């Protein structure tokens, strides 16, 4: 199998392993089935890892009867299973086929022949793990929750469904094969039985971001290049400034906050807009992704540049203007979202959009940019947010540790 370092790109050395591209799902000359990222490391996978093509995201509620020891047991079990799953193995040594024939198998088997497929599993803790909405400290960790872990303020286009928001725990599974991501969530859910239950989940396809300079910028369901000016794995100084937690309790240092928002996009309305209006709303050219102030895709936008009519070339109410660091006290984020299509409504309109995921140093920094967007971004007219959650993603797991160990034993 082909193993790559955390956050590493697909360098020339990696491709030389003799694995040949064979399908549309393969990337940069490497068969996606063989691509493997290590589970252990300084950071959890699935943040800096070059964004894979598929997502299955799940949030869990810890059951009322679950004790602190049970919770730690679950995290241990998830850690062990995750360290196997990312290698393309079943959740246990007996796996899908080698258990006792008279018992259900440990693993469900549908990913048995698919390889690791670049699977990463990223675990996070919700605010309610520390203290329930009713104020209960179920696991004796309430005083270990960082002060920085604040809820997001409600925004103008929030139509949030509580049943598909929040949760005590989350797992982000990303892979280049959807069946591998689904298999991971399905089997980790199964392992949790009696201790935690699935609260909500979301699948996604077609990454809407690049998280490495080695990746080509993909397009979202509005047809726009998305991820051009994203923070990328190679920008280590910026990541230290904007993504990795460095304040508050030491057990969180090196982790990050994951913001997940299911944003429905009014596809049919958008499709009826003039091309020039679509460009004005975003502030970039749809074909090239270049800012309307000129240059190519990666030319920094010039927000002061005006056209012959004296008007700014990039509208002050465009998405790029509103969310750019220059408009938000320098704040940036690492976006890592996916498209989703969940069928259609009774009028034949697609239930589709962006499952937006961002990694940020604090929820407040995200809220600052988001509030500026919600206040006066023309884009908001075409968006409706139906789910919103924030999870604290603890730092990476060392061999013989379990995920989040420093929270319980630090
Ligand atoms: C369905 C919803 C959204 C869509 C379709 C969308 C699409 C885009 C596109 C096409 C770009 C320009 C290319 C790029 O630099 O990546 C962009 C940039 C960006 N978006 Fe969004 N976006 C959405 C929601 C959000 C939200 C909720 C936030 C956070 C508050 C956000 C934050 C950003 C940031 C920070 C940039 C980079 C701006 C820059 O530095 O130039 N976006 N988005």
Key attributes of the depicted protein:
410 residues, alpha+beta, 11 strands, 19% strand, disordered N terminus, binds protoporphyrin IX containing FE
In short:
By secondary structure, the protein is α+β, with helices and mostly antiparallel strands. The chain contains ten helices and eleven strands.
Describe the structure.
Strand 9 and strand 10 form a beta hairpin. The chain has one domain (2-409). It is built from ten helices and eleven strands. 46% of the residues are buried. The chain is an alpha+beta fold and 410 residues long. The strands form two sheets. Strands 3, 4, 5, 6, 7, 8, 9, 10 and 11 form a nine-stranded antiparallel β-sheet that branches. A two-stranded parallel ribbon has the order 1-2. Helix content is 20%, strand content 19%. The two termini are 35 Å apart. The model is unreliable at 1-30 (pLDDT under 50). The chain binds protoporphyrin IX containing FE (HEM).
